[in-house]
Amino acid sequence: MSSPTVLGDGRIALVTGASRGIGALIARDVARTGGHVVLSARSAADLRAVTADLAAGGADVEFVPADLTEAGAAQALVADIEQRHGGIDLLVNNAGGDPLREFHAMSIEENLRTLALNLIAPVTLSHAALGGMLSRGRGHVVNISAMAGRVAFPYTEVYAAAKDGLIGFTRVLRNDYHARGVSASVIILGAVRGAGQGQRMLDEAGMKSSAYMAPADSVARAVVSAVRKDRPEVVVMPGPARLLRAVMDYFPGLGPAVNRASGASATMRTIIDLREPKIPPPTAGLASAGR
Ligand SMILES: NC(=O)c1ccc[n+]([C@@H]2O[C@H](COP(=O)([O-])OP(=O)(O)OC[C@H]3O[C@@H](n4cnc5c(N)ncnc54)[C@H](OP(=O)(O)O)[C@@H]3O)[C@@H](O)[C@H]2O)c1
């Protein structure tokens, strides 16, 4: 079944994390299908710039700033759009990211903020928008996930948990509401080049992008295509990505080897070393005790 009714004239889309990176490109491509697109993120200045740029190209867009890790912010964002536009037809949960620091070196509060942004916010936005979608008999939720958990990508413990959680959430949401006109798709990203946090990380370390990275434009195209074709899951990465995911599930121990072979482990270690203060070596007593 295709679900063309959530794209096009008279339809309302909300794209989170649209102030920069991949989200700005998703907002651009969704706007090109017609309809009205609301861009959200924390930075009003960045949102204003992206929105002005898209509007100059003829897009029907606006922005609403929101910090999705704040209590009540997701519900307030949905309520505001529903009140002014009558509902949300397409929700793209793109806002997300990882601090790229070691799990133990961050406080539990910092770790839980990663969970709040990457999992709790998409769940809360979906919950808030679902009632209106069901009452109109149409809607589509697109969640932007990552390969991180499947390939044991280094230093992403909580991010990986959130992104894997998003895959399960999307599958069940789709199954439960599809017959009532509301669908869900998850877009599972490997590393992305050209825009977004992966590219910024490389720039920070003075490194070049690799053949294992997908262009950011292809993510935006995948989102629109997943909605048009009503795809349950789309993996965006060069090569036989879906096969790789299946193999990783069958042989989970392969992940670290793949990360080493692709250079991801070395790159991430460089980034961590740039960001973390050096941890002092253990004292002689501790080093010898119980080892
Ligand atoms: N780039 C990659 O290689 C890659 C790989 C796998 C998955 N992904 C996923 O793709 C999505 C987009 O990533 P990206 O690379 O484009 O990241 P990005 O450039 O860092 O953009 C993240 C977006 O989320 C917004 N955001 C961050 N914290 C927020 C908060 N508390 N409340 C509301 N908005 C917030 C940011 O805007 P403000 O700072 O203004 O709030 C920004 O618009 C994320 O879900 C990410 O996990 C990316």
Question: In terms of topology, how is this protein built?
Answer:
Blueprint: E1 12-16, H1 21-32, E2 36-41, H2 44-56, E3 61-65, H3 73-85, E4 90-93, H4 108-136, E5 139-146, H5 157-177, E6 182-189, E7 192-193, H6 197-205, E8 214-215, H7 216-228, E9 233-236, H8 241-250, H9 254-262, H10 264-275, H11 284-288
Helix pairs in contact: 1-7, 3-4, 4-5, 6-10
Bound molecules: NADP nicotinamide-adenine-dinucleotide phosphate (NAP).
Core attributes:
291 residues; alpha/beta; two-stranded parallel ribbon; disordered C terminus; binds NADP nicotinamide-adenine-dinucleotide phosphate
Ligand roster: NADP nicotinamide-adenine-dinucleotide phosphate
Biggest sheet: strand arrangement? 3-2-1-4-5-6-9
Order of helices and strands: EHEHEHEHEHEEHEHEHHHH
How far is the N terminus from the C terminus? 60 Å
Task: Explain what you see.
The protein has 291 residues and is of the alpha/beta class. It has helices at residues 21-32, 44-56, 73-85, 108-136, 157-177, 197-205, 216-228, 241-250, 254-262, 264-275, 284-288, and strands spanning 12-16, 36-41, 61-65, 90-93, 139-146, 182-189, 192-193, 214-215, 233-236. The strands form two sheets. It has a seven-stranded parallel β-sheet, sandwiched between helices. Helix 4 packs parallel to helix 5. Bound molecules: NADP nicotinamide-adenine-dinucleotide phosphate. NADP nicotinamide-adenine-dinucleotide phosphate is lined by residues 16-23, 41-43, 46, 66-69, 94-97, 117, 144, 146, 189, 191-192, 196-198.
Quick synopsis:
The chain is α/β, with parallel strands linked by helices. The protein has 11 helices and 9 strands.
